[in-house]
Specification:
The protein is an alpha+beta fold and 179 residues long. The chain has 2 domains: 102 residues, Orthogonal Bundle (Peroxidase, domain 1), CATH 1.10.520.20; 71 residues. It has 8 helices and 4 strands; from the N terminus they run H-H-H-H-H-H-E-H-E-E-E-H. A 4-stranded mixed beta sheet has the order 2-1-3-4, with helices on both faces. Helix 1 runs antiparallel to helix 2 and helix 1 packs across helix 6. It is found in: Cell membrane; Membrane.
């Protein structure tokens, strides 16, 4: 289902991105979409999406009431369009795809780091600097502790995986011994 949701969200995200870029409102759109994605993901709101007792207009009004002030007319129109097409549930994927496109255009790479132990701020800064040099772009790190790695790090950037963990090396040795 997540793959379907992403596929459905992609053209909406691309269209939203182009509107936001043309109006030089990338950050405002990014914030609005993130807020709306959080609202739609809330269990109380999610239970109302698809409720046959609520019209599209009532559902949209509910989302706008929860979101509060600050949604541009264009963002409101996108929400109305999603509601009319029964696509409000794709808002989290739409927001994620929009953000990915925004950071790609701005030259920022999101990198996920899994470490066997907690990394200090200094270690994270050194790692960020090294990865910036390696990828030739600004990097934004998300660091997660995972003791199952035994030692070392695992770095994921889009489709690139650098496994410098002890667990990864042990797995590699086990694979070599099987041949």
């Amino acid at each position: 289902m997540a793959g379907d949701s992403t596929t459905i969200a992609r053209p909406y995200a691309e269209a939203a991105f182009e509107v936001a870029r043309a109006s030089k409102q990338l950050d405002a759109w990014s914030d609005a979409l993130a807020k709306l994605a959080d609202i739609v993901a809330d269990p109380q709101v999610a239970s109302q999406i698809g409720n046959p007792n609520l019209s599209d207009r009532e559902l949209v009004d509910l989302l706008f009431a929860v979101a509060g002030e600050g949604l541009s007319v264009e963002v409101q129109n996108l929400v109305r369009l999603l509601a009319e097409n029964e696509r409000l549930t794709v808002l989290p994927d739409l927001a994620r795809l929009f953000e990915a496109r925004k950071t790609a255009v701005q030259g920022v790479r999101h990198i996920q780091i899994r470490s066997a132990y907690a990394l200090s701020a200094a270690e994270q800064k050194t790692l960020q600097s090294s990865l910036k040099s390696h990828f030739g772009a600004e990097v934004e790190l998300t660091v997660e502790e995972d003791s199952s790695l035994i030692g070392g790090l695992e770095v994921r950037a889009d489709d690139v995986v650098i496994d410098g963990s002890v667990r990864g090396r042990l797995q590699q040795l086990a694979n070599e011994l099987q041949f």
